[in-house]
């Protein structure tokens, strides 16, 4: 009798477990015709706008200002150390949700120095490299947005 009762208990537990699994899997599966919320990918103009502002490189007090980016990715950029340094060109590229900024400086003591930066939306920072042309050295750098 105990064997029969044990077998019945095991059978009931197994059946209960199967029902729970079926309920949880059916609850996770969207029904046909149900609306699924999806985020539309950002346009290049929306991604470019994330770069607008004044950016500080805390390790030296250098400031990079981005006031506009046109539809071709050309950026209106200014650089200060603390005095203005000529920006030869600045451009923005996107790769899906990634935004990359490149800025070349061409001035006294800045003969073709180049920033290659990526925008990190989760921390609202620009991170990447700085190529110091006179020394032929590349350094890891980061910029934080100034209020």
Topology:
Elements: H1 2-28, H2 44-49, E1 53-57, E2 62-69, E3 75-80, E4 84-85, E5 87-95, E6 98-107, E7 110-120, E8 125-132, E9 137-145
Antiparallel strand pairs: 1-2, 1-9, 2-3, 3-4, 5-6, 6-7, 7-8, 8-9
Describe the structure.
The structure is a single chain. The protein has 147 residues and is an alpha+beta fold. The chain has a domain of 102 residues: Avidin-like (Lipocalin, Beta Barrel). Helices cover 22% and strands 46% of the residues. It has a 9-stranded antiparallel beta sheet with strand order 4-3-2-1-9-8-7-6-5. The longest helix is centred in the first third of the chain and has 27 residues. The radius of gyration is 28 Å and the shape is globular. The N terminus is likely disordered.
């Amino acid at each position: 009798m105990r064997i029969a009762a044990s077998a019945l208990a095991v059978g009931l537990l197994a059946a209960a477990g199967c029902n729970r699994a079926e309920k949880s899997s059916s609850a996770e599966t969207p029904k046909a015709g149900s609306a699924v919320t999806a985020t539309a990918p950002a346009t290049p103009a929306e991604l470019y706008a994330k770069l607008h502002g004044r950016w500080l490189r805390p390790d030296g007090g250098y400031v990079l200002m981005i006031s506009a980016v046109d539809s071709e990715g050309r950026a209106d950029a200014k650089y200060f150390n603390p005095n203005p340094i000529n920006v030869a060109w600045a451009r923005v590229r996107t790769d899906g949700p990634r935004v990359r900024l490149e800025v070349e400086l061409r001035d006294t003591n800045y003969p073709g120095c180049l920033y290659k930066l990526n925008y990190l939306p989760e921390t609202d920072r620009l991170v990447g490299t700085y190529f110091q042309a006179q020394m032929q050295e590349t350094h890891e750098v980061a910029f934080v947005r100034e209020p």
